[in-house]
């Protein structure tokens, strides 16, 4: 209950939450660098974070599926006149929570030698780079095709 209390209090503090995530991620990469091992754990974390990022960028209702019930992004000019805010498949707080848990789990995994599988890390890095590029290319093409922007700048301030 205490953890849930602090999580509920932290929902409005977006910047400090992401600073915490960045610090944890930096500690993880520092640990990987100093130990010179656990590259497969880092690769798994990268895939996990990429998957969450794609879910964060994706709309709640996929406009490319024909079985939509009308709730989602407008698909015709007639529907497009009504403003609808972008609804994410993975909300920001859940995205942060999943990413932070993933980094925390990865840090804990680096304390157990069973996860230190010997791999040639440049191949993993190259493969992750190609996977990231291809996935983001597909996601940006999807955004362009269905004309949605997953970035909201909030209410205008005067």
Automatic annotation (TrEMBL):
A Pfam family recorded for this sequence: Rer1
One GO BP: retrograde vesicle-mediated transport, Golgi to endoplasmic reticulum
One CC-aspect GO term: endoplasmic reticulum
Domain of life: Eukaryota
UniProt keyword Cytoplasm present: no
InterPro entries (alphabetical): Rer1 (IPR004932)
Localization (cell): Membrane
Parts of the chain that traverse the membrane: 18-34, 40-57, 119-136
Alphabetically ordered keywords of this record: Membrane, Transmembrane, Transmembrane helix
Bilayer disposition of the protein: Multi-pass membrane protein
Annotated family: Belongs to the RER1 family.
Protein name according to UniProt: Protein RER1
UniProt organism field: Thalassiosira pseudonana (Marine diatom)
